[in-house]
Design brief:
The structure is a single chain. By secondary structure, this protein is mainly α. Helix content is 75%, strand content 0%.
C-alpha cells in the first residue's frame, strides 16, 4: 500500500501529503510518516516536489487532522468509552 501511495506523490504532491497526514493525525491507521519521508527524499533527490510545499502540506494536514480527531473524540468518545451494552444508545444513558 505504501508503494502505491508513494508513486502518487509526484503527480498529486501536496494534496496526497495533506490528506494522508490529516487522516493519520485524526486516528486512521495510514502511513503518514512514510509518505512524509518519501516526499522529502523525492524533493531532495529529484526536485520533483518542492520541500517547502512538502513541509507546509504536512503541517497543515497535521493541524487539520488533530482538530478533526479531537472533535470526533469530544462528540463520540465519552459515549463510546462507557457503552457497555450492544444495541442501546449510550447517549440516552449519559447526560453530557
Amino acid at each position: 500500500m505504501s508503494d502505491a501511495l508513494i508513486s502518487l506523490i509526484p503527480i498529486y504532491g501536496p494534496w496526497i501529503i495533506f490528506g494522508i497526514v490529516a487522516f493519520e493525525s485524526a486516528g486512521v491507521p495510514l502511513p503518514g510518516e512514510t509518505i512524509l519521508v518519501a516526499a522529502a527524499l523525492l524533493a531532495a533527490a529529484t526536485g520533483q516536489v518542492n520541500i517547502v510545499v512538502v513541509v507546509l502540506a504536512a503541517a497543515a494536514g497535521a493541524i487539520v487532522g488533530d482538530g478533526v480527531g479531537y472533535m470526533v473524540g469530544r462528540r463520540l468518545g465519552f459515549a463510546l468509552f462507557f457503552a457497555d451494552t450492544v444495541g442501546t444508545s449510550a447517549s440516552m444513558r449519559i447526560d453530557c
